[in-house]
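Why Nuclear pore complex protein? Reviewers of the renewal asked for a concrete example.
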Amino acid sequence: MDLLDTSLKLNSSTYSLIPEKDLVHTINHVIIHDSCMFLENSTNFKVSMLQFHEALNKLVSVLINRPITNKSVSKFMNDTIDQLIVERNIYGLFLQCFTIEDYVAENEELSTSIRDRLLFDNSEFRILFTLLRWSESVAEDTLDGFASGLNSLDELIKLDNVLGNTILEVKNGQKSISLLSTGLHFKNDGLFLNSKDSENIQDMIKLIVGFIRCGRIDEAIQLVVQTKFASVYSLLKVKKYIKDPKLSHFDDKKLRFVSSFKSRDCTKFVAQSFLDKNFSTYTDMDKVLLGSISGEFKSLFKYSKTFDDKLWSFLTAAIDARFDEALENNFGYKSRLKRSFERALTVDSIFENLEKDNVHDYYGLIKYIVTEQFSKCVDFMYSKIIDSINRKVTVENLIHPNTLRMYANLTILFKKFDIEIDLKMADEIISSYIDVLKDLKEHKYIPYYLSTLSDNLKEEVAKTFLSEITDENNRKILLKYCKNYGMNIRNICLLLCNRDSSFDPYLSDTDIDDKIASWLWLLNGENETLVEALEEGCKLLRWLLINNKDFYWEKVLKMLPDNIVFDIETLNIKSENKKRIDDINLEFLSFKLFESICSKYQYWNNCFEKSCVTFGELSDEDLAKLSFVEKENYQRELKEFEAEIAKWKEESSKAKDILINETNLTLTFPKGWFTSTIQNDPRVEELKKIRSICLYRTFKMLLECHIISNDYKGTISILHTLTDGEGQLIKELDFEAREDFFRSIQCLSIAVELRKEIISTSDNDVSYKVGLKIGGGIDQDPSLSPFKYPDNGIYITSIDANVAQKSGLRQHDKILQVNGHDFTMITHEKAVKYIKKYPVLNILVARNHMKDLESQSKV
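Here is what the prediction returned.
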């Protein structure tokens, strides 16, 4: 694994000089890796959420805290950060839900506080409280909106006084706010404030509002205590109740609590009174502070600039009002403030109002998560994807790739932990993220997401994805990943291979390449599709050879492993398929034998050419002109050359013997070379064509070997091999192949011109005497011949001493051609008619004993 593949290896300083685009690419790659890893190893929903949250927190921290070399940050970078923050916040919401659930489970039997009873007994309050706590944690992470006052800690550090120094110590973790010791005090006994006091007070108010927004009430109280900000201290005590309530309806000191409650209500009333007066000197933060204390929603919402602050305004007002209502119910004291709107707020009404304001489209997701309506979460995510696909939203609001990743992560976790959701929608969400991974070329992660799709879909989607992968090594790796994730790669490979029952003979080279690429998926499937790979491979080989696509034929044959037959035989094959598979195995071995013959012929040809190289020998006269040294060098080079020629002649002779032996194997091949033992096999006709082609090419190569090497005896042996015997191999060749053979051997077989003898009859008519008789023919039974010829070719059975014998013909010569007409596949009657038809016959015959050729070969 690359060191940068995981967020654990990231730090801000690493990226100080990396361009923004490269940095974002790296961050995206890291979170893609982490997401896949977390999902793959997930065994606990809560742990997975924690992993996602921590990883996103690290990535956001890296991006925000990196050293920036440019004065401005691009919109691209800001958008990326915003997307990651939103995703982190969603995971944080799940964690907050777990935190509240754990608190309830641990304290439900023990705690008697009013706030806790609301958490335990009132599901609506528990949801609102969960959302509030989550909203506070979000604000603390982002420090924007109402929480931006906490950024003033940096400004307070710059104050040239004790406060500035102690704030620095607080920020560095060396002191807590409760240990502040400062001379900067805010008192209410002065009628006038100078500009410096006013500025400090405004900064303090912003800071206190920031503490409130983030739920850090204790720190806010500690700060105002240490700075003697007395007027704010009494206000903050109101917020303390809901954060750490001590009120219990079982407490014996009920009167003290009633008194405390009255004081709390009075403080809230005073804060509301200040708001109502709306002094011109009030800043926005003053009004937010008073609104948060009094629990009035309008003031809070009015000054909310971010969607998180708007949600918090609803939540803090709703919870405060419900808490007040609970205090009234327990202590019988009616508040002077009427909060009918705030008390009526529910989770549904809050989100309905937010949707009207259109603050952010991920609010719907928050609502369904916190209310545990996970099926509606999926509905929500699906609808957002479809709206983007159908362009129902503006370009700015199109769904982002990072958002799709988050949607996919949540959906997969819902499926993994058997949460009831719409599976079709879930598949669409995951498939959309798979498309993103394709665009980003993050192919190695796609097999995992494919494995999370529904069973009736995953193989088809896998086929679509893998069909776009052209590199064979990548194909094998991705298939291996698919197998590791439990997918049926046999079915996938069968889907990927376009197994047509027939081929168009006019396929272009591009089409052939596509066919081969499609077939290769069966090879990539290894043992899962090994039988189909060989069967389809042989089908390809037959088509390519029949259509003279030799280049592609060799290419496909080389792609098939040499040991594929052995590997297939080790598989557990059903008995009903055994015969067919054995037949395919023999066909492959037939192709391998033909390939071997071709390679052996090529090797012999190379050796023979090297043995025929000539040396520029010098005449005696030229040799006499050489110096002694030159003559020695010449003699040495000549000797080396002769030794080299002798070596290649010997090697050529050996290569020829090997070629002859391999050719003879075609005649003894088990169950017949390129034949099928299965009746009604559609391969039979193709195999006949293949056998004819391969027989022709094989014996043509061997014939050329004999001709080139002046081996006349070997040439005649080929002729006998093709024409003798019951099978008569020459019959299996097509017409053009036989014609080519005859042309090749014409100079070696006996070519005779027979001019018939003219005979005058008594009535002065002219007739022609041929002087021979023939027997045989394809319609005759050679076993009935008195001469027992080995086949049903046309033979000369008798000959007179005149014309025929003088022309060079002999008894028992086998007639191969007459005037260019093939006599190897002809009936007896047609042969007689043809011979009688012409006065001059150019006859090509084969003879069993050709003493003259044998004697020439010995010379």
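The two ends are 74 Å apart (CA to CA). This is the kind of structural detail the renewal will allow us to pursue systematically.
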